[in-house]
Amino acid sequence: MAYHTPLYLALFFPAILLGYQLAPRKYRWAVLLAGSFGFYYLVCGRLVLYLAGTTVLVHYLGIWIELLRQKSRMEGEREQERNWKKQGKKILILGIIILLAILVSRKYYNFLGQNLNALLEALGLLPYFPPKDLLLPLGISFYTLMAIGYLADVYWGRIRAEGHMGYLALYLAYFPQIMEGPVCRYSDVAAQFRRGGDLTGENLAAGGIRIFWGLFKKIVIADRLNVLVGELFAPESSYGGVFILAAAAAYTAQLYMEFSGCMDLVLGSSRMLGIVLPENFRQPFAARTVTEFWQRWHITLGVWLKTYIFYPASVSFPAKKWNCFGKQRLAPYWTRLGTAAIALFPVWLVNGLWHGPRWSYIFYGMYYFVLIILGIAIEPMRLKLLKALGLKEDAWYYRCMQRCKMWVIILTGELFFRAEGLAQGLKMYVRMFENFEFSPLWDGSLLNLGLGKGDFCIVFLGCLAVAAVGHGRERGILSYAGLQRLWQPFRWALYYGLILSVILFGAYGEGYQIVDLIYAGF
Amino acid sequence: MDTLLEILRGIDCDIDFENEKGLITDRLLDSFGLIMLVGELETHFDIRIEASEMMPENFDSAEDIYRMILRLGGNS
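YS: structure for the whole thing
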């Protein structure tokens, strides 16, 4: 029951809305919790026990850390404070190990086993890890990150441990976000869950429009592109040259439309309930640097990695040792570069691994790690070059150049990300440069890949519309409040146009297959 | 405070540290500038900055940073 299916949109979600409004204010969280666990059970059956177990574990460990802190505060001694920090840290580490063990045992067992078996065979030993048919609990990668973040925040004293297990359970299981995020922090949503406010016309309207906008991106554009992407990335396919470039561009567009469209469905659903979740995308293709791209793409994952991995790594023992060494023996340039590498390596390794148990995902993480480090390394030279050539960073032509560079970087990364394994990714990348000609783009060759002229027109116009809306949103023109300021007939024409385009141009029915949410697989 | 301002100017001389109130939230100081700043603060004020202190509230302005230094027992 994904968010774009009729079952969710026409039956499940309206029932939750109704139940939420009819319930007494103080029990509305319970309606959401029952709905969330019901949603989970409908999708995953008995695997809901993993989610329930994680909730109990995290609740218990959080309270344990909190009690230790309170005890040390009452006793007040500095020594006591130090002791609680040590004990609290042990509990935090225990929690992280258990949560990661569950995640690894379900998601990475076969990957690790396969690689260890290969290693054993290389050493002349017999394989030891038989492959297992493991089912992955829905959203385990998302709720594990949220659970770890919650425990770390309690340990760091940024939030108090939640005493009410129901609210914590709702935080981890909240049905709009369980499949694809956003990766929330407890402080983002706790007060909103407790408030249990009435449904309002404004929230229903704003959320409803957002849901239709998400459906437009998902069903009209992403699902249509899926036909093209499936054909070009098929393991047996032998396309080369500009077809590979088209494959990378089509997949990048599909992934963005799909993931950001799903986020519109998620944020829209939640907004209708009066609960505002953090945004996950902000015009990523307008980024001028790699770092900026990751501040605009999957924002909440980036914030999580920065808060719980980058900062702790940057004040870790190796980073501090390197800093000291660098100050005494090296130029600031090398010290800065080394510190950045120490802090960024675990971030990008986790980013790659988090997406799934494949070498191509690890490559994807390392690809961005190398690019960011390269960016820091050449920054002084870049500034000198700009000065020497008299170029201005904010000049339109320079911004254009930077964006073109970013598009090349993004398309290359997504090519490897989507390929069926690292080997296929490398093969496709090499084939792109063989017999490269632009003519297949207009000689009709692209029309043999499953999409007709009309489909290409719809995709092109749809992408233009998404870019225009994103541009408008960035400038605050096309936010819900901004829409309200438009001339009423024009505004309603936009709403009807959106709804009709989903119904008329959606890629469903004969000739199309239902496409699962991509990020739900992560 | 003067030492702190001197350190901050050493990290990025283009930022008006005396008046800026959103060094992190307005993304004036990037993550790499921040980790370099942490190293400098630890050396100059003889403090230990842990991961729990790495939040915008502690680094958004020179005053915020100064308050954190005092709270951590720095030699001001």
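YS: worth flagging: Chain A has a mean pLDDT of 91.
IM: good catch. Also The two ends of chain A are 16 Å apart (CA to CA).
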